[in-house]
Write a structure and sequence with these properties.
- The complex is a heterodimer of chains A (361) and B (385).
- Helices cover 70% and strands 0% of the residues of chain A.
- By secondary structure, chain A is mainly alpha-helical.
- Chain A has a domain of 233 residues.
- By secondary structure, chain B is an all-alpha fold.
- Chain B has a two-stranded antiparallel sheet.
- In chain B, strand 1 and strand 2 form a beta hairpin.
- In chain B, helix 3 packs parallel to helix 7 and helix 7 packs across helix 8.
- Chain B starts with 15 loop residues before the first helix and ends in a 24-residue tail after the last helix.
- The relative contact order of chain B is 0.20.
- The N terminus and C terminus of chain B are likely disordered.
- Classes of the chains: A mainly alpha (361), B mainly alpha (385).
- Chains A and B meet through helix 5, helix 12 and helix 15 of A and helix 5, helix 6, helix 11 and helix 13 of B.
């Protein structure tokens, strides 16, 4: 049965028709682009998880951007350094894993955790302003990675390669209705595939475990938490450093999974979009993941519209909209939500406040 | 708030030298320490990265070139002043916010939007008489930056949206807005790359050397004006009171919300002026890649200056000279200009860790950073009473 005349009829309705055209365009465009959307969403979601872990325990971390950048650089540069020791790589069938890649990944995550430990020390132990501490991390990361990259790239070295994507069987991806969702989640490299597991795991951990309960208690009312015997300082340290591991994964994704290279400032503000995703997701892992997917869709749409623009009235409207609007949408949405215009988002009560133990300890 | 007030009244006041040392010790020692770290980074990178012959005095060559590039000869000094100018405006913008307990991390966005305002009016008045064009374009830059600062101030006052988050978001909106306008309505038709027309008569006249535009003088005037505003007017007193203790200020009949909006707007205007000075004084037209690190450097400037307007000029001169000299450092010593960012970050790091430093230097009472202002409270949103 051919529905084209019927659909064209619907599209012809004034105003409402344009809305239908938007939906029709999205339905046509999103499924084939779904794996790419997931690629865009992966670093955002992982970095947002870092934000959730930090802020749920009461530590604001705007240094996620710098942490990611440092991890991306480290993962790449360690690959460059150890590559010669292992000779010709012999990638395994699953994800193209090689020993240098594993070491690179571990190095990237390790550096991110070390940087987060510095942030924890400055903001928890020294009780320095957490925004300043995060700003330092961002400036230092841009400076150091740019500085070293300048020196290293003179020899134009080769990295340790990149993780390969898993190719799910076509029987799965061709399933009607949900096939494209399976393709989106499964046609990915190892870091990207693990995102969904990490998101659900963190959600359960935060809301269904003792440690999660303690984390939330420390973020909402540290004094009360301390009186029932929770070590506020230790919980905060642990969460910030664990969050660093997520930021490290996000960074390593950029330099050894999505690409096999490092460019100056390659995070390009993703750490801040992640903060936006965290706020929009109301400081929950699953919410943040959803927001990251939404933002990733905007970013991807900005590219898709150039390649295959919509036809008809919608095409005329879209032609007059500057493409930069899609890149700006996540930030604008975040401001709108923060201001409480649509569905207010409220942070943990003790977020950003240094904690001082009572005198007699 | 500061411990200085808790000095016992019957203790003899410290001598002038001792007082000057108390104020200057931390910035000076911090700067020297970070230069030391920079030297270690240079030596370390030489060891690890490059295959060149090891030169144990490369750090000296690098720093000598840095100083020569910043102060060796008239051209170098003028170039330093040109680099310093936007940092003074930006540093004042951030410092002004700090005084009111507001962390304006959005100087970058206000810088861009200010420059955008200046280029729109500047291009429109490119053939008008110079004084009119200059004043109008400058005012446009201030107003545009002020508007970009007004938004987070207004949102904070009305709904409690934290200024740190909203200004970060606005930074990126500004980047996209600039790109959209420069590659759209402002673009020179038929130009292969996105670039605007020249501002023509609205360009700042050169007053010192070959590149020293009038913005340099404007920056010094602005520093004096902000100092006067903060320390000699009622409004300045109220701003500092709100920054020190918002609750006490409210009980004293001040209106913190109104002051928040006014402070953010004024701060945004100053940051907008920073962008204006770069656009009208240096680039004269705008490409879609317009933008520097001025916004983030300004935070470092304000912190190093401990939010004092006069200190801002000194700190801006320090960072401005580093930026100006970095080019020669790269040529003479092969050290990438990014070393300046490393130095800046280390300076900030030592500043933040200065409680440890003060213990070592046996200083008391001198607070660093924004300790004088109310600490950044809950991010995101705050209860609005």
């Amino acid at each position: 049965m051919d529905l084209t005349p019927f659909i064209n009829g619907l599209y012809g309705i004034p105003v409402f028709g344009v809305l239908l055209q938007v939906i029709g365009y999205l339905v046509a465009v999103i499924p084939p682009n779904a794996p790419n959307i997931m690629q865009q969403a992966t670093p955002l979601a992982l970095a947002a998880l870092c934000g959730v872990l930090c802020e749920r325990s009461g530590v604001v971390n705007i240094g996620i951007e710098g942490t990611m950048l440092a991890a991306a650089f480290t993962a790449w540069v360690v690959g460059v350094a150890i590559q010669p020791m292992f000779g010709t790589p012999n990638p395994s069938d699953i994800f193209g894993i090689t020993i240098p890649l594993i070491i690179s990944l571990a190095a990237g995550v390790g550096v991110a955790m070390a940087i987060s430990a510095l942030h924890a020390w400055l903001s928890i132990s020294l009780r320095a302003d957490q925004i300043i501490s995060g700003t330092i991390i961002n400036i230092a990361a841009v400076g150091l990675t740019g500085y070293l990259n300048q020196l290293i790239s003179q020899n134009s070295p080769a990295g340790a390669g990149e993780f390969a994507r898993f190719v799910p069987p076509t029987a799965l991806t061709n399933l009607p209705g949900i096939g494209w969702i399976l393709a989106m989640l499964l046609n990915q490299g190892p870091i990207s595939i693990s995102v969904i597991v990490l998101v659900i795991g963190t959600q359960l951990w935060l809301f269904r475990s003792r440690w999660g309960l303690r984390t939330r208690a420390v973020g909402e009312h540290p004094r009360a938490a301390e009186t029932v015997g929770i070590d506020v300082i230790r919980v905060r340290y642990r969460n910030v450093i664990l969050g660093g591991a997520f930021a490290g994964l996000a960074g390593a994704f950029l330099s050894i999974e999505a690409t096999n290279s490092f460019q100056d400032d390659m995070t390009a503000g993703r750490g801040f979009i992640a903060l936006a995703a965290m706020i929009m997701g109301r400081w929950t892992p699953i919410g943040s993941f959803g927001a990251a997917l939404l933002f990733a869709t905007f970013l991807q749409l900005g590219q898709v519209i150039n390649i295959s623009p919509p036809s008809g009235e919608l095409g005329t409207i879209m032609a007059s909209v500057p493409p930069q609007l899609f890149d700006a949408l996540p930030y604008i949405l975040t401001i709108v939500i923060l201001a409480g215009v649509v569905g207010r988002s409220i942070p943990p009560a003790a977020d950003g406040q240094p904690y001082e133990r009572e005198a007699a300890t | 708030m500061t411990k200085r007030s808790s000095l016992a009244p019957n203790r003899p006041g410290p001598s002038k030298v001792a007082r000057a040392w108390e104020i200057l010790a931390v910035p000076v020692v911090v700067t020297l320490l970070s230069l030391l770290v920079g030297a270690v980074v240079i030596l370390g990178s030489e060891l690890i990265v490059t295959g060149r012959k090891f030169d144990p005095f490369l750090w000296f060559t690098a720093y000598a070139a840095l100083v020569q590039g910043a102060f060796g000869g008239t051209d170098a000094i003028v170039s330093t002043l040109v680099y310093t100018t936007p940092l003074v405006f930006g540093g004042l913008a951030v410092a002004f916010g700090f005084k009111a307990g507001l962390f304006n991390i959005g100087a970058q966005g206000q810088f861009l939007v200010g420059a955008l305002g200046a280029v729109i009016v500047g291009v429109a008045l490119a053939d008008a008489p110079a004084p009119i064009a200059i004043v109008a374009a400058t005012m446009a830059g201030i107003i545009a930056g002020g508007l970009w600062g007004f938004i987070p101030g207004f949102l904070k006052a009305v709904s409690g949206a934290h200024e740190v988050v909203s200004t970060i978001m606005l930074n990126y909106v500004a980047v996209q807005l600039l790109a959209a306008l420069v590659s759209g309505p402002l673009k020179v038709p038929k130009s292969p790359s996105p670039v605007t027309y020249d501002v023509g008569n609205a360009a700042y006249p050169i007053v010192i050397g070959g590149t020293g535009h009038i913005g340099i003088i404007l920056a010094i005037v602005a520093a004096g004006f902000v100092w006067w505003l903060l320390f000699r007017t009622t409004w300045g007193f109220e701003i500092r009171s709100v920054g020190a203790n918002p609750d006490a200020a409210r009980y004293a009949g001040m209106r913190p919300k109104l002051l928040t909006i006014a402070t953010m707007t004024f701060s945004g205007g100053l940051a907008g002026l920073a962008g204006t000075s770069v656009l009208l004084g240096v680039t004269h037209s705008m490409t879609s890649a317009f933008g520097t690190t001025v916004g983030f450097d300004s935070i470092a400037v304000a912190l190093l200056a401990r939010s004092n307007p006069i200190g801002v000029v000194a700190a801006a001169l320090l960072f401005g000279s580093m930026r100006a000299g970095a080019g020669l450092m790269q040529i003479n010593a092969g050290i990438p200009v990014e070393l300046v960012d490393v130095l800046q970050a280390t300076i900030l790091l030592f500043l933040v860790a200065s409680p440890v430093l003060r213990r070592v230097l046996r200083l008391r009472g001198v607070q660093a950073g924004i300790a004088e202002t109310a600490a950044t409270n809950a991010l995101g949103t705050e209860p609005t009473d």
